[in-house]
Design brief:
The complex is a heterodimer.
Chain A (H helix, E strand, L loop, with lengths): L1 E7 L5 H12 L6 H22 L7 E7 L5 E8 L14 H7 L5 H9 L2 E7 L2 E9 L2
Antiparallel strand pairs in A: 1-2, 2-3, 3-5, 4-5
Chain B lengths: L1 E8 L2 E10 L4 H13 L4 E12 L1 H9 L1 H7 L2 E5 L3 H9 L7 E3 L2 H11 L2
The chains are: A alpha+beta, B alpha/beta.
Chain lengths: 137, 116
């Protein structure tokens, strides 16, 4: 099954993204915890893109694709035409440093890398494609 | 998206979070905790029984207060997290940095013990 959702880059739209992902994963026999992890990782990726690549401009559009093949490796793609925001280029901050610096950001990248099995980027036809995969039992 | 209430009881400020906390709503949690600190509460209990979702923005709010709470001798205990929410805290190892328990009763006992 393939699902697609297009959404403007406003943080107010994150709820709609989460609902779309939950709906797409319904009936796959996944636990609440697994669904929540996937929702969390994609929410983090989309909010990072909205903030850092699109400055929360609601006229800029993110395309979210979900592919649920039979072999049970879920494939998620987030497609945009902004500045590429590659989380693999960012070091994961140490928790102690975040506490000491009283920083509210920096945890999202650590969450995504912990939850997803792979995060890769492709630049194609002037679009950035961020492809994330997650193996499920 | 999120509704946050405060109730004062036996010198403890109870913060009740209802709904979902993400990058658009984490500011409300931040402002609520800041109000509690501003009103000089030293015992804060956060009720997460109706918290359905939290992203890194919300976790970051809790993290950002850890040092200030140490300096000001403020104790905060979080309780009642659903398994999926507790898992989010667990992925990052935040359970070691924050005081977390299961029930309101346990949270009240712990926040009082920490304040002795």
């Amino acid at each position: 099954m393939n699902y697609q959702y297009n959404i403007g880059c406003s943080l107010e739209n994150l709820k709609g993204i989460r609902d779309f992902i939950r709906g797409s994963l319904e009936g796959q026999g996944l636990s609440d915890v697994t669904v929540n992890e996937i929702v969390l990782a994609l929410d983090e990726m989309c909010s990072n893109l909205m903030i850092h690549a699109h400055h929360c401009n609601p006229e800029h559009i993110l395309e979210l694709h979900i592919e649920i093949p039979k072999k049970k490796t879920l494939v998620f793609e987030i497609i945009d035409d902004g500045k590429m925001f590659d989380i693999n280029q960012f070091a994961e901050p140490e928790l102690d440093n975040l506490v000491h610096e009283k920083r509210k950001g920096g945890l999202g990248i650590r969450l995504v890398k912990s939850i997803m099995d792979s995060v890769e980027y492709i630049h194609e036809s002037n679009k950035n494609i961020c492809r994330l995969t997650k193996k499920i039992p | 998206m999120v509704h946050i209430k405060r109730l004062q009881e036996d010198g403890i400020d109870n913060i009740v979070i209802i709904g979902e906390i993400d990058a658009s709503s984490s500011i409300e949690l931040d402002l609520t905790i800041a109000k509690s600190v501003g009103e000089k509460f030293t015992k804060i209990v956060v009720d997460c029984t109706a918290l359905e979702y939290i992203s890194s923005a919300g976790l970051g709010v809790f993290m950002s207060y850890i040092e200030e709470f140490r300096d000001k001798k403020i104790n905060m205990v979080i309780f009642g997290m659903k398994e999926k929410v507790a898992n989010t805290f667990g992925i990052l190892g935040l359970a070691d940095l924050l005081h977390i328990c299961n029930t309101k009763m346990e949270a009240k006992i712990l926040v009082n013990e920490l304040s002795v």
